[in-house]
Design a protein that fits this description.
Blueprint: E1 6-11, E2 14-17, E3 20-22, E4 28-32, E5 36-40, E6 47-52, E7 64-69, E8 75-79, E9 85-88, E10 95-98, E11 109-114, E12 121-125, E13 130-134, E14 141-146, E15 151-156, E16 162-166, E17 171-175, E18 182-187, E19 194-197, E20 206-211, E21 218-224, E22 228-235
Antiparallel strand pairs: 1-4, 2-3, 4-5, 5-6, 7-8, 8-9, 9-10, 11-12, 12-13, 13-14, 15-16, 16-17, 17-18, 19-20, 20-21, 21-22
Length: 242
């Protein structure tokens, strides 16, 4: 697992009703590995700093690897080194820590995906090729098994289908969390550490962050199986001390 710059991203969605997401503002959230949170304009990749997710928690994030919202619109961050979760304030980055438990070994916990209807959450271990479910209230992990893929990012669509992207290849798989069977559905950009599902798209579509060139620059692109991959622009992180 290599170090990454703008590591995690997701669509900023507002809950219209319980279990239903509505993208009212076309905004994404992203995070750098050292815990700075940014709002991202998906039309041109421009970024605005929200704040450091390091604020108010101890121990701080060692490596912020992924972000997602729960059904109530609360933003969660994942520490890829130890599995700790953080509830992140999207106004100022202030974070409440939820300490992990139930992990016997950790390679790198790269992906976090939360079902926006049920609240069920999944985490992928990229290095050890494992898939977990995690209780967002207690931080308790349950091993589901070995999925056989190095998933750097996970996301669920509006129907509850789980997807993973493989870092270095850009291959996107649909994952059955019950059987751990994986089905290749397409290939986006290479070196994608995380992705965000575009829930208002007519067909399955993901925003993607990707390293280009590795490792000092991150870019934003968009991918759908019907139209392929298109770059949007370079992501900048002003104010982040690095």
């Amino acid at each position: 697992m290599s170090s990454r710059y703008l590591c995690c991203m997701l669509a900023a969605c507002v809950l219209a009703t319980a279990g239903e997401r509505s993208v009212r503002a076309d905004v994404l959230y992203g995070g750098t590995t050292n815990g700075y949170i940014y709002a991202i304009n998906p039309s041109n990749a421009a970024t605005t700093e929200v704040g450091p997710a390091l604020n108010g928690i101890s121990p701080a994030f060692e490596f912020l690897s992924s972000l997602d919202f729960n059904p109530a619109g609360v933003l969660f961050g994942l520490d890829g080194r130890n599995g700790n979760l953080g509830i992140i304030n999207t106004t100022n980055g202030q974070t409440t820590l939820i300490t992990s438990s139930g992990l016997s070994s950790v390679g790198f916990l790269a992906g976090l995906a939360i079902d926006h209807t049920t609240g069920v959450a999944y985490v992928s271990d990229e290095d050890l090729e494992k898939l977990y479910s995690v209780n967002l209230s207690t931080g308790q992990y349950t091993l589901l098994g070995n999925d056989g893929q190095e998933f750097a990012g996970l996301k669920l669509d509006a129907l509850g289908n789980l997807y993973g992207v493989v870092y270095g290849t850009g291959q996107i798989y649909q994952i059955n969390p019950n059987t751990l069977a994986t089905t290749l559905v397409g290939v986006g950009a290479t070196s994608v550490p995380d992705m965000a599902e575009k829930t208002d798209a007519a067909t399955l579509t993901f925003y993607e962050t990707y390293d280009n060139p590795f490792p000092t620059v991150s870019d934003l692109g968009i991918y759908s199986p019907s139209s392929g991959f298109s770059p949007i622009g370079q992501l900048t992180t002003p104010g982040d001390p690095g």
